[in-house]
Amino acid sequence: MKTAVDRLRSSDSSDLIAKVDAPEHISLTSRTGRRLEGEISVFWDRTGAPGSIAVIVDVCEPKPGVVTPIAQDSFIRSPDGSLTPQPLTPNRCVVKRRTRKARGDL
Q1: How far apart, in Å, do the first and last CA atoms of the chain sit?
Q2: Does 104 have pLDDT greater than 50?
Q3: Nearest in space to 21 (alpha carbons), one of 48, 47, 54
Q4: What is the distance between the alpha carbons of residues 18 and 81, in angstroms, rounded to a whole number?
Q5: Full-model pTM
Q6: What phi, psi does 79 have (nearest 5°)?
Q7: Is 67 within 8 Å of 93 (Cβ atoms)?
Q8: Contact present, 76 and 53 (Cβ < 8 Å)
Q9: pLDDT digits over 63-73, tens only?
Q10: 82-92 b/e (C-beta count within 10 Å ≥ 16 → b)
Q11: 14-54 pLDDT tens trace
């Protein structure tokens, strides 16, 4: 995973922009031979400077039931090219639940 994250950190902004809203799924093998799955998510960071790009990499071990990440890394690329760590949300590998709007919000 570290190699994949390092490669993303050194990518040009244009390469990251091409990955926005197009999650990439990867298969990995651990040092002990376990089969792992990863997801690379790139999206516009709406909390930072305009044009900032957030990158999150999750690695999970697929098992029946709830899948929790065993490794995560993330960063934000600012328009000036600087990188900052991004706080992670727990259990990103679990399917996101959509919230329903109240009737008055429809």
Answers
A1: 42
A2: no
A3: 54
A4: 16
A5: 0.72
A6: -60, -25
A7: yes
A8: yes
A9: 887 777 888 88
A10: eeeebeeeeeb
A11: 999 999 999 999 898 888 998 899 999 999 988 877 889 99
